[in-house]
UniProtKB/TrEMBL annotation:
One Pfam family per UniProt: ArsP_1
Parts forming coiled coils: none
Signal sequence coordinates: none
Protein name as annotated: Permease
Membrane-topology annotation of the record: Multi-pass membrane protein
Stretches for region Disordered: 1-24
Subcellular location per the Swiss-Prot or TrEMBL entry: Cell membrane
Bilayer-crossing regions: 28-49, 100-122, 128-149, 169-189
Cited InterPro entries: DUF318
UniProt similarity note: Belongs to the UPF0718 family.
Keywords linked to the UniProt accession: Cell membrane, Membrane, Transmembrane, Transmembrane helix
Length: 203
């Protein structure tokens, strides 16, 4: 059987629909190194002021806090993994992919606005969307919308404390920002990770 030619329309369409890969995640990056250095410096300052007992007291408190957060982190990671398997890749790529245009940014903004839960839910869901075909722009719009507009925090905290007028105008003013952030993210990502040219189209 003959292999499909590089200029086969079906092959070109599959290449167009395939999301561009991002950078591989490293277990230890610059952020981890900087945080570790700050922890070491802070521990040294606490030890100099309060001695070993002060360092151990802080360490014990932080380990207790970590034990309380760990189940939620695990649940969020599992949620992201399950979502990436459940969501139909073709529909997500069509609705939120690189070719979704303004509609993809609006869908990401609307999804972020109604997404419940805290960061242990939002970021695993955003990671799952990237894994199943959403592009950086739509995902950025979703995260920014969840941060600025999220109805859960508005209903539970903002309206009771700040009042309806403040919440309404804050949401109205914030509405364009996720779309603008998503468009800028899409513009920058296309230039940082240019799409490879198929071998048959090279001149």
């Amino acid at each position: 059987m003959s292999e499909p030619s590089p200029k086969d329309p079906a092959s070109a369409e599959d290449a167009d629909s395939e999301p561009r890969p991002g950078r591989a995640r490293k277990p230890i990056g610059w952020s981890t190194i900087i945080i570790a250095a700050l922890v070491a410096v802070s521990a040294g300052l606490v030890w100099r002021r309060d001695g070993t007992d002060g360092v151990l007291d802080i360490l014990t408190h932080d380990l207790s806090l970590f034990g309380g957060i760990l189940p939620r982190v695990l649940a969020g990671c599992l949620l992201g993994a399950f979502i990436s398997e459940i969501l139909p890749h073709e529909k997500v790529s069509r609705s939120l992919g690189p070719k979704s245009g303004l509609m993809g940014l609006l869908i990401g903004t609307a999804f972020g606005a109604i997404l419940p839960g805290g960061p242990f839910t939002a970021y695993p869901v955003a990671s799952a969307l990237l894994a199943v075909g959403a592009d950086f722009g739509a995902t950025i719009a979703m995260v920014v919308s969840w941060t600025l507009i999220g109805y859960g925090r508005a209903v539970a905290w903002e309206i009771p404390i700040m009042g309806t007028d403040f919440t309404r105008w804050r949401i109205v003013i914030s509405l364009p920002l996720p779309v603008l952030a998503g468009a800028l993210g899409r513009f920058v990502y296309v230039r940082l990770y240019p799409k490879p040219i198929p071998k048959g189209d090279e001149t």
